[in-house]
């Protein structure tokens, strides 16, 4: 009865808008709670801007991999064991082994976060000045040499993750890349990627520029645009078809 009174007093447009806003608030609150991210703080949803995680053997629509225009949930991590590396071969995420992490390069908050796969963990012993990388069979070595990653006589200053974009030839710690010259510390990590909402992040990229001053939407693949357009048309057609149905019913009744 109370709901009927509200419907009579409040214009339909205002009521629909209120319901939509309420639904968004509920969904975002649920996602924030699930992600474990601090509030206020790092947002739980991340829009992918670059193609560094793309796969050449993708299917149409690219569902299951991380591509420009996708939205992923950044789930908080609290300890090293929360992250599975590529080298551990525990499970696959987004088209390959290991977890994909979102981190701030060199821990700097003034730089755009990077979303790349955790390849292996480097353990640095400050007393003996040696390195252990179990995934690649390296123990108590005076430097790190992993030819498949392009790392030769690598001597970082602390423990952390070696990270790499699936589409990149070398890891972020590769000297000539300069994406993140040191292994990624746990405290630099915002979270690990969980779930995927494909294509819809392209709408944000349409209205923003990347760190190089270029429109971010330029990197969104063509098939993602096609899938996004089809999805939007389908979503808009649902309320429209309901309105048409109600109109026809009322017309028939009179």
Structural description of this entry:
The chain has 254 residues and is of the alpha+beta class. The model has no long low-confidence stretch (mean pLDDT 87).
Task: List the main descriptive attributes of the protein structure presented here.
single chain, 254 residues, alpha+beta, 4 helices, elongated
From the alpha carbons, calculate the radius of gyration and give it in angstroms. Answer: 23 Å
Measured between the Cα atoms of the first and last residue, the distance is 26 Å
Q: What profile does the largest beta sheet have? A: 8 strands, antiparallel
SSE sequence, one letter per element:
HHEEEEEEEEEEEEHH
Shape annotation: elongated
**Count of β-strands:** 12
Low-confidence stretches: none
The percent range for strand residues is 15-25%
In DSSP terms (H or I, runs of 4 or more residues), the helix count works out at 4
Which bin fits the share of residues in helices?
25-40%
Multimeric state of these chains? single chain
Overall mean confidence score, pLDDT = 87
Overall structural class, as computed from helix and strand content, comes to alpha+beta
């Amino acid at each position: 009865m109370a709901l009927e009174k509200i419907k009579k007093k409040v214009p339909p447009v205002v009521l629909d808008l209120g319901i939509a806003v309420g639904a968004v608030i509920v969904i975002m609150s649920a996602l924030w709670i699930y992600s474990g991210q601090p509030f206020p703080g790092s947002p739980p949803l991340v829009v992918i801007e670059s193609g560094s995680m793309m796969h050449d053997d993708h299917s149409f629509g690219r569902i299951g991999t991380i591509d420009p225009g996708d939205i992923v949930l950044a789930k908080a991590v609290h300890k090293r064991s929360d992250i599975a590396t590529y080298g551990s071969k525990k499970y696959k995420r987004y088209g390959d082994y290991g977890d994909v992490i979102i981190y701030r390069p060199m821990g700097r908050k003034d730089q755009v976060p990077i979303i790349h796969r955790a390849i292996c963990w480097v353990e640095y012993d400050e007393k003996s000045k040696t390195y252990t990388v179990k995934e690649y069979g390296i123990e108590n070595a005076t430097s790190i040499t992993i030819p498949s990653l392009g790392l030769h006589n690598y001597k970082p200053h602390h423990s952390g993750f070696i990270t790499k974009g699936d589409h990149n030839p070398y890891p972020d710690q590769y000297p000539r890349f300069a994406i993140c010259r040191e292994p990624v510390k746990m405290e630099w990590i915002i979270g690990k990627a969980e779930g995927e909402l494909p294509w819809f992040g392209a709408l944000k990229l349409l209205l923003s520029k990347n760190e190089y001053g270029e429109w971010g939407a330029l990197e969104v693949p063509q098939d993602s645009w096609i899938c996004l357009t089809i999805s939007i048309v389908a979503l808009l057609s649902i309320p429209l078809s309901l309105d048409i149905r109600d109109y026809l019913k009322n017309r028939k009744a009179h």
